[in-house]
Structure formats: C-alpha cells, structure tokens
Design a protein that fits this description.
Largest sheet of chain B: none
Helix content of chain B: 55-70%
Strand content of chain B: under 5%
Distance between the termini of chain A: 54 Å
Order of helices and strands of chain B: HHHHHHHHHHHHH
Number of strands of chain B: 0
Helix content of chain A: over 70%
Oligomer: heterodimer
Radius of gyration of chain A: 18 Å
Number of helices of chain A: 6
Radius of gyration of chain B: 20 Å
Strand content of chain A: under 5%
Shape of chain A: globular
Largest sheet of chain A: none
Distance between the termini of chain B: 55 Å
Largest interface: A-B, 18 and 26 residues
C-alpha cells in the first residue's frame, strides 16, 4: 500500500513538474508547480513527517506559488511565447544547478553529515526541533536557499518587463 | 462499514451533512442578526418560524438557474477554484474535536494543518478571479491575495502562543491542557489578533475587500452563475463555522464545561457565541480601505503578535531563566 502511494505521489510530482515547465500558458505552469509541491508534501506524509508536510503546503503552495502566480498575472506574458534560446546564461545556470544537485545529493547521503539521533515516528515536537537545528542545520539552510531563490526568481520575472 | 463510527462521523456529524445544513442556517442567522442590528426584520416568509428556511429556498433557486461559463474565460480554473474551495472548507471542520472522541482526523499537528489548509485559499481565489477574464473579478482576486497573505503571518504567530502554552499542536490535547483554565486569559492579546486575522482570512466585513459589493460588485464572485455561485459563496459560511470552532477549541476550552450537560453542547454553544460575535462585527464596522488594511496587518498586528510571543515566553518559561 505504502509503495503504491509512493509511486502515485512520485508520478504526480514528476508529471506536474514536467507540466510546470512545458505548459504553454504560464498560469497553468504555476498551478502545475503547486500540484508538484502537493506531491512532495504527500511524500513527506509517507515518511511520517506530517509536520514538514503541512509546512511544505503552507510555505510552498501558500506563499511561493501565490507569489509566482501574482508575478505572472502582473507581467502578463502572451500565451504560447517561444522559449528562450540557448544562451551563455543557460550554461552557467546548468553548471550552478548541477553543483547544487550534487551538494544536495552529498547531504542526502547520511555519512556526509552524520546525525546522532534520527527523528522517528515516536519523536515529539521538541525532539524534532532539536534534531532539526542541531543535526540537520545545513540541510535546513539549503531549504531556505531554495526559498530565497524562489523570491529572487519572482522579483527577476517582474523586473524584466519594466524596460520595455 | 456503513455503520462504523468514523463513516457516520464523516457523513453525518461533524462531517458533510451537518456542514451543509449548518452552513445554510448560518446564512439565515447572519441575515437575521444583521437585520436586527439595523432595526429591520430580515427573512420572514419562507418558513414556519422567522424565515428559517430562507437559505434553503435560495439554495433551490440557485440550483435551478442556468449553468454557463462566460465567454473567453478559462473554464478549467473557473469551475475548479470554487469547488476546491468548498472541499477545503469542509476539510477544516474534520480537524476540530467536537467532543471527546468526536473528531474525524485526530492528527498530531492539527493546528498547523488547519492553518496550512487556510493558506491555500488566496491561490484559489486569485485563480478564480483571473479565470473569469473580467475586470472586477480580477481586482477582487488581487485584493484577496494581498489581504490574505498579509494576515496569514500574524494568524500563525498568534496560534504559536497557544502552542507554547499547551506544549502540543494536537487540538484534542490543546483542549485537555485548558482543563485548569482557558487560554483566552493568558493569551488575551493572542486571541484578539487571532480573531481579527481570521475575520480577514474569511473575507468578512470589515475586511471584505475581495467581495466589496458596493465597489467591485462581489469581486471575484461576480461572474459566477447558479450552482457555481453557491459553490463560491459556500466556503465563506463553512470557514466561519470552522474558524469559530477553532477559536473555541484553542482559546475557550473547546468542549470543556460543567458536566451536567454533554461536552458537545458546550462546544456548539461556545462556537455559536463566537459566530454571533463575528456577525456583529459585520453589522457594526464599516469596510476598511486596502492601504489601511495592509498597514494594520504588516505593522500593528505583526508587532503585537511578536509581543504576544514574548509575553507567552515569560509566562511559560518565566523571568529567572532569561
């Protein structure tokens, strides 16, 4: 049952993430991003991390997606705009993204930053907060980096139209 | 299966059937209370007594209206947004403990779960306003976005005070923690902030800018026909019910009360008092302007919420440890 749910959530996450990039209408793209975040929240629920799951919903769908939607509606791009060509910037972005992915992979490997006590199903809130800030501090900072990237991305999106 | 307690709770009480009936009755109560405050009579005819069936009559009328999607609108989001809002509103009620054991989802993180579901509503309202492809709905959607995202932060922070007092996020345990005294006394400031921000989250007067009948003629709901209008209006009353029940649960001791009457009675009567209080706010205060609203949210309420957390810290941990 858990495996089936995992597959379902993973399929929803990946499918919606692909749709978020490929959708011709940016509003649909942003909405698909929200569904991808919901899928990730589902994965957190499967890992017995309901607290993280609910915050995933509150922060990512409640704040980040709404920010992106607002920016898209404010800037108002034409439907079916041609995608940007391959530029030097995309190469730089690709290198940065792969670096970030590599680092995240290294962090996901438990040996890179060993934690003393993992917060299992019998873990209460104070134990969870302690382990989050003590053992997983670096991971937490990476998550906030993603948040910062989202805010900067939204700001950049709203700024490009000013000059025209 | 059909007679299992959880199934009955989901279908009858506190689940779907009761939510629909209470939502409709709240519509009647609101019109009656507002009318009394304004020295009018209010709904009168559609019933055996006091126009109590007025909302059911309205419901039937709306259900038989023609259902259409405006030209050049985005049909998917236009239909999806209000119906999803209705489902999410009903999901909120499922988290509330109405009596010992009478709770559909007794989860460890009940309070953040409730607030996380609430954060989805600006997204839906923005999509609803945008999809109608019309001027006033879009303005209403943007107003909802500004207002609700600004008031979410004080809302979460005021709930944090309760979590610090109780030491748990489980709503049933928060009620149990109030057996020695209701949290509204040590958390008076938090309760005030929670009430104000939740009225703003519900888009009710004096914070009903996204609807604002007299300015942008119902705002994001303007283009909704028939049953869809019902689906757009419904979450307002369901949220009123859910928020009042949550306020009762975390500040007014939930179902606790003298034992000569059942816990459910205490829970429902306290919830009703909170509901009437919120309705009186509606008929007493005029609508605020958007800039006043945002300034109050981002400066006054946010500061008060942080001060409240400081006070709570002193109450819980005490001065000597500082």
């Amino acid at each position: 049952m858990t495996d089936l749910l995992f597959l379902a959530f993973a399929a929803v996450t990946i499918g919606a993430a692909i749709l978020a990039i490929e959708a011709r209408d940016l509003v649909y793209g942003a909405a698909a991003l929200g569904i991808a975040f919901l899928g990730v929240a589902g994965l957190f629920f499967l890992l017995d991390a309901a607290y993280v799951g609910w915050f995933q919903i509150a922060v990512y769908i409640g704040a980040v997606v709404v920010l992106i939607l607002f920016t898209v509606m404010l800037v108002g791009p034409k439907m079916g705009e041609t995608p940007l060509g391959l530029k030097r910037v995309s190469l730089l972005a690709a290198i940065l993204v792969s670096l970030l992915l590599g680092m995240t992979g290294a962090l996901a490997n438990a040996t890179a930053f060993p934690g003393q006590d993992s917060c299992g199903s019998g873990c209460d809130l104070s134990m969870f907060s302690t382990s989050l800030l003590k053992n997983y501090g670096v991971h937490l900072e990476f998550m906030s980096l993603v948040m910062a990237a989202a805010v900067i991305g939204a700001l950049a999106l709203s700024k490009t139209d000013r000059g025209q | 299966m059909i007679t299992s307690p959880l199934f009955l709770q989901i279908v009858l009480f506190p689940g779907l059937t009761s939510i629909a009936i209470i939502g409709a009755l709240l519509g009647w109560l609101e019109r009656k209370v507002t009318a009394r405050v304004q020295l009018r009579i209010g709904p009168l005819y559609a019933s055996p007594a006091g126009g109590i069936l007025q909302m059911f009559a309205d419901l039937i009328k709306l259900a038989f209206k023609e259902l259409f999607v405006p030209e050049n609108s985005d049909a998917f989001f236009f239909i999806m947004a209000p119906t999803t809002g209705l489902v999410l509103g009903a999901a909120l009620v499922g988290l509330i403990p109405f009596a010992p054991g009478l709770q559909i989802a007794n989860i460890e993180v009940g309070l953040p779960a409730f607030l996380a579901i609430i954060t989805l509503s600006p997204t839906l309202i923005l999509l609803a306003g945008w999809s109608a492809n019309s001027k006033f709905p879009f303005i209403g959607g943007l107003r909802a976005l500004f207002q609700q995202t600004a008031y979410e932060i004080p809302l979460w922070l005021s709930a944090l005070g309760v979590i610090m007092m109780a030491g748990t996020m489980n709503l049933a345990q928060i009620v149990a923690a109030q057996s020695t005294g209701w949290f509204i006394i040590p958390q008076a400031l938090g309760a005030f902030i929670f009430l104000v921000t939740s009225v703003a989250e519900m888009e009710r007067l004096p914070f009903d800018l996204p609807e604002a009948e007299s300015e942008i003629m119902m705002g994001w709901q303007a283009e909704y026909p028939g049953v869809l209008f019902l689906a757009a209006q419904g979450p307002g009353f369901v949220k009123l019910y859910a928020f009042s029940a949550l306020f009762t649960t975390i500040f007014l001791g939930g179902f606790l009360g003298p034992s000569f009457l059942p816990p459910l009675f205490w829970m429902l009567s306290k919830t009703l008092i909170v509901i009437v209080l919120i309705m009186l706010l509606r008929s007493t205060f005029p609508r605020v302007r958007l800039d006043q609203l945002l300034r109050a949210g981002w400066t006054t309420l946010l500061t008060l919420a942080i001060i409240n957390i400081g006070i709570t810290y002193l109450l819980v941990v005490g001065l000597p440890t500082l």
